[in-house]
Amino acid sequence: MRLHRLDVTAFGPFGGSQRVDFDALSSAGLFLLHGPTGAGKTSVLDAVCYALYGSVPGARQSGQGLSLRSDHADPGTRTEVRLELTVAGRRLEVTRQPPWERPKKRGSGTTLDKAQTWLRGYDPAVGAWRDLSRSHQETGEEITQLLGMSREQFCQVVLLPQGDFARFLRADAEARGRLLGRLFDTRRFADVEKRLADRRRATEARVREGDAALLAGAHRMQQAAGEAMELPELAPGEPGLAAAVLGAAAVARSTARERLTVAHCRLTAAESAHAAADRALTDVRELARLQDRFAETRRRAALLEERAGAHREVQARMERGRKAETVAPALELREAAEAEHRRAAAAETRARGRLPETFADAGTAGLAAAARRAAEERGGLESARRAEQRLAELVAERAGLDRQERADEDVLRETGSWLAGWDAARAGLQARLESAQEAATRAEQLAVQREPAGRRLDAARLRDQLAGDTEAAQERALGSQAAALAARAHWLDLKEQRLNGIAAELAAHLTDGEPCAVCGATEHPAPTRRAVGHVDREAEERALAAHRSADEQRAEDERRLGLVREALAAATAEAGDTPTERLAAQTEELEQAYERARRDASGLHAAREELRRAEQERERRLTDRQQAEVRTASRLTRRETLDRERAVLEAELAQARGAAVSVTARAGQLERQAALLTDAADATRAAEECARRLKDADARLADAAYRAGFDTPRAAAAALLDDAAHRELQHRLDARQAEEAAMRAILAEPDTAAAAQRPPADLEAAERAAASAAGRLREAASARDAAARCCAELDRLSARAADGVRGLAPLREEYDRVARLAALTAGTAADNERRMRLESYVLAARLEQVAAAATVRLLRMSSGRYTLVHSDDRTGRGRSGLGLHVVDAWTGRERDTATLSGGETFFASLALALGLADVVTDEAGGAGLDTLFIDEGFGSLDDQTLDEVLDVLDSLRERDRSVGIVSHVADLRRRVHAQLEVVKGRSGSVLRQRDAG
What we know:
The protein is 68% helix and 10% strand.
């Protein structure tokens, strides 16, 4: 990689645009970058790093790149870095612009522009630049791939920070490991260590989980086995836990099986005793039953004997009832004939009571003849009844014609009166409709004018309000602007005072024997003293913070003023110059006119509907008048016809109805008289027939009672039993007979008779003995079941434990293997005698290469005295692998690099840095590094050593390299002719370049 040109604008301390021509500086091989402290020497290197990687080294990178902008830059100038270089045979130009908070183009305040990146490549075929990318990510990936190193590697290899390598020489193994890890990217080896450690912890956790589950199963087995099992005193993860648990489970299973055998024997004995007690209880219960049965039978026999008289009475009554059953049909016939005779006599009395007194003594034949005469007279009135009905119809129709005539007269009179005022009413409705239509048109026109008038009035009111707000905002903006200018001037004054006394501030941190941060010298004979009123860093930072706060307040006030002005301009454009009061009056007048027009137009629909309904009413009334006139003409003819027919019918009916009100009434009288006479004749015949049948029934009943052995029919009726009484007596007889037979059978049974001869049975004693045997049986069965469940549970848990042990076996093997590998790579295994981690082992190999490459230059710088060697010995209790010693050829002894003096440390660290650059370059892919920078440290060298170091640096030109020395040592300005000077001032720093010629 070779740098050609660097352009910076508004970057770091550079307020304007600056250019560095590296081709001119590199022509001599060595060039010097110098300037006072704080001028911006490091910022030149930061610009190179930012152009390549989009960020600056270390802590100087903050936020999103906003801190890279120069405080001295004009607000309208954007920060930009452009670098032209050749890498991997390609000439490229990289341009980067960090995020920029610029002033707004319209109004006040600022806005944030995003970062920009351009990558161009030079095409020698056409002699012009060609765009390659405008993407941050693509540009970064392209640069990183071409250089073959990350930003951290670039800053250590190309921008050689001597202070870091001096600390590297004095650092312990851990600090060296962190630096080398960043340079050689050994994260993959650290990731291997971490992955093995994570895997070891994961497998260990899984083994512990398995052991915990195994122990949990053992606890459950202990609960099931009781005192027969003792748990091993081992924790999860300890060796031998599985075997101990399985052994304890086997002992518990054996003990449980012995207990189960004993429980089986006890259960068998209890079952035999219980069976014997049950048989004895059954025998006693049978004896007690037979004895009780015999006693109960004897008691029932005595009771039957006491009831023998009542039994004989029931038998006698049953015998009389059987004889009375032969008389029952004659009794039933006589009762039926008597009931029928009573009903017929009552009917005859009722029928004769409804007849006139003239028929009270008439016989059956006289009543029938009178009924026939009434029926014949009623038949002769049928034609008169039809004439009477027709007369009623004529009267009803004549009354209907009269009502219709009166109604038509009312219609004609009302219709004539209404039609007389039709023309005037129609003219009034038409006038209302036209007036409402005109009002609706006027309301539509006014509605179009309302919304613009309202917007204009609102804008005028907002205009008046914003006019006052603008004056207040302008006053605040002027005040904050003056305060910001005063705060900036105060900060610049303090900063200039501090820079004038910076030497005293740096001298306050000098310590005897420690190198100076500026010149590198370890002796400080006359450090500068602080003057009265010296401005320190804290005072300058407070002034800077006050300046930034005031500037932010100024920007915020200007932004608010711009917003108020924009709103005022918009409101003025909408409202114009008309006063608000006049616009309000015009708007109010327009609203009132609009409301009046709306009220007038609201009756438009009603007027239309009223006119339509009036026209429909006129048509209906004309039709009604015409129909009424037609009906009046037809009624005259119909009325004359009805009158003639009515006169004829009235003469005919007067003759037919006689003294009755009407023919129908006369016919009704005759019909009722014929019906009464007929009913009376029928009732008289029925009563005579019933009396004859009753007399016959009395004769048959007396004969039947005599033949059955009864003195009178009444005695036979008293002996007769109904069905319920007969069933009840028969049931009593059957029950007694059955009970006597059952008692005889029981008393004849041999077992019952034998049981009666034995002593009384003791049932309570037998039940107590059986209950005691049953309790012992239940206890034995419970004990046997508990023992069986214990055996089954132990077998199940033991099988599960065995399965768990078999399942954990591969996991335990994996854990042992992973744990050995993790301990080996972490440097904690017994096999790793030097306690060297895997990453340290790889870095040790790289450090050995770096020491060999650094020794080539260190021998020349130290005139063949010093050699750097790598050591893998352990230091104290630490780990080995990253030790670095120096061999002194004058004494022949090897010692630690921390014992070197200040000057020796410088050229040793320079040789180490150059060697590291060669190794990292080869590691990154072999991309040539044609431009290097070395930062500070030359002030600690004497003249001879400085010449030797410069010779070594000058020899780098043999590999076509150019080296830039960053230092403010005065002697280097005489020795190195190509120079780039950084000059600082109140308006920012500038670059002055002097070529080798």
